[in-house]
Design goal:
The chain has helices spanning about 20-25, 55, 95-100, 115-125, 145-165, 170-180, 185-190, 190-205, 230-245, 255-265, 265-270, and strands spanning about 10, 30-35, 35-40, 65, 140-145, 215-220, 250-255, 280-285. It is of the alpha+beta class and about 300 residues long. A four-stranded antiparallel sheet has the order 5-6-8-7. The protein has a two-stranded antiparallel ribbon with strand order 1-4. Strands 2-3 form a two-stranded antiparallel sheet. The protein is globular and about 75 Å long. It binds flavin mononucleotide (FMN).
Amino acid sequence: MTATQTPVCIDPSPCSGCGTCIRVCPSDIISLKNQKARAAPDTDTARCLVCGHCKAACPENAIDIPALDPGLHDFSTFDLDPAWLPPGKGVLTSDLARLICSRRSCRNYNPTPVNKEMLQDLIHLAVFAPSGTNSQAWTFTCLTSRSEVLVLGNAIKDFFKRLNRKAENMILRKALALVGAGTLDHYYNNYYESVKTAIEQMETENRDRLFHGAPAVILIGSSPGASCPKEDALLAAGNILLAAHTMGLGTCLIGYVVAATEADRSIQQKLGIPDSETIHAAVALGYPDETFQRISGRKQPTIRFR
Ligand SMILES: Cc1cc2nc3c(=O)[nH]c(=O)nc-3n(C[C@H](O)[C@H](O)[C@H](O)COP(=O)(O)O)c2cc1C
């Protein structure tokens, strides 16, 4: 390979000058010179998204993107057929639909731990999700034992205990609402009671109303610089939820973690997550202690065709 100064290394010998890489490049940084593709000499990672579309599309396999880690194609718990799957080929829509419709949030787990290889493979699949401007600024923090999960669970519970105490103060709620900060009043009207009950059950019955007894949690965060960090995190989470189902794992997104860690930055410090990161999704995982029997329906969505 002939290295250029750009993140895109195009080997001129096999390049046939077909222009495929030019058509697929979202940043318009590749052009033809003497019937050979070349990346603009001033291209840096600010201009090149490092998305790898040119590498993926080149019929001559003449392009290398050194920043892309081929190790992420290696999975420990299953074999990946690395052959490109063209649209409409290879996977039946009905099989995918069955997977999508059969994934359900799991709220009862057995205590069997989830091994690290599985978590690692799920994360490797997560990062194949799209990300805004291909930032790929995901961070994944895995809690791999019940004791780790409980450290987070107790910190979240303490946060909501403090929030409930604040929300019980009607004068404070109304005063805040008067100055346009109605969040506490909204919380009181919509969540206070159920959170209070959950905290009581956690403390008196030892029931894990937050993580539902899950032996593992993946926290998906972002490091600084991502353009759409929340969306990126939820898309990555979507991959994890579906893939986990194929591996025999149950999952559940836990929104309370996101709300608490956003409001109280000290919680993530307890887990050794740097202050510069923000948590956008928490996925509880484990082997399900419940067996759904059938695909149930969904509410009717609003759909428009124009
Ligand atoms: C952003 C988000 C946050 C959620 N937070 C929680 C949560 O804190 N606790 C919980 O038990 N379920 C949580 N869920 C799961 C939803 O309740 C669940 O997806 C919904 O009821 C539909 O059920 P299904 O996932 O089985 O299809 C969350 C889901 C989403 C998308």
